[in-house]
Write a structure and sequence with these properties.
heterodimer, A: about 280 residues, alpha+beta, Uridine Diphospho-n-acetylenolpyruvylglucosamine Reductase, domain 3, Enolase-like, domain 1, 5-stranded antiparallel β-sheet, 4-stranded antiparallel β-sheet, B: about 150 residues, about 35% helix, globular
């Protein structure tokens, strides 16, 4: 049962509370409200971590910035492109988007967290603060097994996305209803040059315990002549049988794997139109 | 803990338990237009406006309301003086049991505050977080389209 609800006014204060009370960090609070009910909740939404700004050729997003703020941000639209914004728009309902935060969507204990899938293809970095200082880590550090334990004494304060010249994010999500959590999601960040795949970043979410970059498929395509036939061949070369599919009561494991292939073919075919 | 907030434009001081949801408190304080549907943030029946934006009161900690302004359906219209959105929904035959309607009205109100002339797609997107088990959604979409059209014709 929750005994106290504290508002931290800075990240330092939040970390002090975290150390001294053993409480749980709350941002949007939508997951905490449904899962754990510890003695102390430490709310960081008034700790000045709500911002989107450009700094050193990177887009810097404060951890408590809501998905709704991201969708409405002209900076996100300008530097990460319409594909990214459309992707975020498909995460949850409008109401949820006005509550859920970017930091929270990385930290939640669910295999279907969608935002990290998009952040993987953007090669985002995450700033983590502890009482001993701060650290900048690739998003992969928080899409690896054990990330919840790793985060225990840390606070996500910023997400830093390097801005590239041509950003072409595509996003495909498979669910039963529009605002349901993903059964599967895939994201790509592709550029083409003289009909060859020049930049190919592919990430898959909800398929396994954590979202991941499908680097084997990226390598099959990189620097090769673009064609639908090559997409088919590349998809055939992936060792799908080695992927540990995370169970989902809505669909079978085989179905999930088949949907993965369908969505990847669809998204890569869309990517053929990239510049 | 004590929280200070504005509800439908009127200042309030409420005693809340640190872990309870905004929905529990709002309903206890008499604003029963916000409905307890799924209680897990999926159906949208509990929707209120927090500083003008639709949120799900069932998965919102009441403590988060401190210093904020909320709008519930009671702040928009009543049986005697319905809001134009409520009237539009009734006229289109978009209301049956009515359980989902307060939340839908608030989401549509927020949409129309933001976009004077929303497209059908935008109306559908804004309705995406509301489950209605009676009517389907066609008439609800039409109701808002009719309302926007009437406003345009004026």
């Amino acid at each position: 049962m929750v005994k106290q609800y504290i508002y931290a006014t800075s990240s330092e204060e939040a970390l002090d509370y975290l150390k001294n009370t053993g409480g749980v960090i709350v941002a949007g609070g939508t997951t905490v409200a449904l899962t754990s009910k510890p003695d102390t909740l430490i709310d960081i939404t008034r700790a000045n971590l709500n911002y989107i700004k450009m700094k050193d050729n990177s887009l810097v997003i404060g951890a408590t910035t809501t998905l709704g703020d991201i969708i409405k941000s002209p900076l996100c639209y300008q530097y990460l492109g319409e594909g990214f914004v459309q992707g975020v728009k498909q995460i949850g309902s409008r109401q949820l988007q006005n509550m859920a935060t970017i930091g929270g969507n990385i930290a939640i204990p669910y295999h279907w967290r969608d935002l990290p899938v998009l952040l993987l293809v953007l090669e985002a970095k995450v700033k983590l603060e502890t009482t001993n200082g701060e650290n900048l880590l690739p998003i992969e550090a928080l899409t690896a097994d054990g990330y919840r334990t790793f985060l225990k004494d840390k606070l996500i304060t910023e997400i830093i996305i390097p801005v590239e010249e041509k950003v072409n994010i595509e996003w495909e999500k498979f669910t039963i209803t529009a605002s349901d959590v993903s059964i599967l999601s895939v994201a790509t960040n592709i550029t083409l040059n003289e009909n060859k795949w020049k930049r190919v970043k592919i990430a898959v979410g909800s398929l396994t315990k954590n979202p991941f970059r499908l680097k084997a498929l990226e390598e099959e395509l990189l620097n090769k002549e673009k064609s639908i036939e090559l997409i088919d061949k590349a998809l055939e070369k992936i060792h799908w049988e080695e992927i540990k599919v995370f169970p989902d009561q809505r669909v079978s494991k085989d179905y999930k794997l088949n949907i993965t292939k369908v969505l990847l073919k669809r998204i890569l075919t869309k990517g053929l139109r990239a510049r | 803990m004590n929280i200070k907030l504005k509800v439908n434009g009127i200042e309030k001081n409420w005693d809340v338990a640190p872990g309870e949801s905004a929905l529990e408190v709002i309903r206890r304080e008499g604003f029963t237009g916000a409905k307890k549907g799924c209680d897990t943030g999926e159906c949208g029946a509990c929707t209120i406006l927090l500083n003008g934006r639709p949120v799900l009161a069932c998965i919102l900690f009441a403590a988060k309301l401190d210093g904020q302004e909320i709008t519930t359906i009671e702040g928009l219209g009543s049986i005697s003086f319905p809001h134009p959105i409520q009237r539009a929904l009734v006229e289109a035959g978009a209301v049956q049991c009515g359980f989902c309607i307060p939340g839908i009205v608030l989401s549509m109100y927020a949409l129309l505050q933001e976009r004077e002339n929303p497209s059908r797609e935008e109306i559908k997107e804004a309705l995406g977080g509301h489950l209605c088990r009676c009517t389907g959604y066609v008439k609800q979409i039409s109701a808002i389209e009719n309302l926007v059209k009437i406003d345009k014709d004026k």
